[in-house]
Amino acid sequence: MQIDISTFNFDCPVCGAHHGADVKQVVIETGAFSKLEEVAKSLGLNPENAVAVYDTNTTNVVPHRTTAKQEVILPAEDLHANERGVGLLEKMADQCEYFIAIGSGSLTDITRYIAFQRGVPFISCPTACSVDGFASNSCAMTLKGVKTTVYTRMPIAIVADTEILRNSPMKLTRSGFGDMVGKYTSVADWKISGLFGADEFCQNIADIQMKAVREVIDSCALLGEKDPGAYEKLMYGLILSGLAMQMFGTTRPASGPEHHMSHCWEMGVLAHTDALHGEKVGVATLIVSKKYHEVLKQGISYLDTLLPNLEMMPKASLRKVIGEELWPLIEEQNAKDTLEGLTVDIIREKWDELTAIMATIPPYEELLEIYNSIGAMTTMEEIGLSDDLIDKSFMFAPYIRNRFTFMRIMSRKINNEFVTE
In DSSP terms, which residues pair with 50 in a beta bridge? Predict the structure, then answer.
């Protein structure tokens, strides 16, 4: 499969903006890795003037090594997209015409970051269907302990070999699944944000994102059987998600309350877990679905449980939970509340439209059936956390990122049991 990139560059008749993607070629097929040099040459790049970046795991999964002038092998153990990971590659990599990232999420983000800093392009060669960021123009970096979106650039090309993908650990495949299923809640909350005028919303981009989700759901049944076609569909869905982010210009189409909960745990707020990003996002998506559908079941009377003017939680309460080390960055993130000016009365006026959007999120039971079909993690215990953190995480996660979500609205409760001030 080769994706026609021209279809992702257009003047949008829905929102009026121009949407575009900078990636030039996408190849997803069996044996694609052998076409790496061919793709580079077609883009005017010299394969012998590249730096190929592996980790100690991915060197063992590719069918052959590249003709790059330098191969950098990063240690797979404890490799994350943070200052340490970036520092390792910066120190080890020679100057080059372009980079090749041969690995999954963290390695790709590290390579993307260094390529951007040096002003050169990079080619992404995913070795597992683990995340949706391969085609993104941003890095999910942890800097000074805070999960941060850093905007850089898209890969100039993506070369994904389905033979490599289908032989990757199923744990990584399930992580990619979890990252994608989270789009049910992120897209719904993006549309809710647009409903209240907090963000620009484009139905065309939302449709592309949800098409990506359907590709992933359709691939579930055969992934456990290592079917090449199923892995091609899954990677296609993950790449579509990245293209949606690039076309809109931010992560808004792909990151909502489910990611904020995941980031909360990744930063060690309330608790820390070493579960994969997509595993955490998948479990968080189930939690968000259940919470939102409880609101739908209760109906408009739910609004009576919220503070009329939706005031933020007192800073002292937030600070106590966030901790002194992270607090300055979280305080800055929430300096101007994205809910400012919103009231319960305004929400009440748009209740029918709001709940119609929330109802597009599949109910918990339906999602659970899909998760079980692939053996994905479904509980807090499975990702190394306790159930008693669910309500606390749901309450504090909205402050990790100042983004409009219904979860953020739900955190503005009367008689909030977690407020200590």
Answer: 98
Residue 406 near residue 191 (C-beta atoms within 8 A): no
Q: State the residue for tokens 């919220």.
A: 306
Q: Of 216, 239, 261, which Cα lies nearest the Cα of 126?
A: 239
Whether the pLDDT of residue 421 is over 70: the answer is no
Task: Give the pLDDT band (50/70/90) at residue 31.
Answer: very high
pLDDT above 90 for 2? no
Distance in angstroms (rounded) separating the CA atoms of residues 134 and 153: 11
Beta bridge pairs of residue 53 = 72, 101
Take residue 223 and report the two structure tokens written for it: 């992934």
Residues 6 or more apart whose CB falls under 8 angstroms from that of 194 comprise 200, 201
pLDDT computed for residue 146 by the predictor: 67
Confidence of residue 333 (pLDDT cuts 50, 70, 90): confident
Tokens of 373: 């079909």
How confident is the prediction for the chain on average, in pLDDT? Answer: 91
Q: Which residue has the tokens 């745990």?
A: 265
Please return the burial class of 13, using the count of CB atoms within 10 Å of its CB with bins 0-12, 13-18 and 19+. Answer: exposed
Instruction: Find out whether 240 and 129 touch, Cβ atoms under 8 Å.
Output: no
Range list of H helices, 80-169: 83-92, 105-118, 162-166
What is the number of residues in the chain? Answer: 421
| 3-class secondary-structure state, position 306 | strand
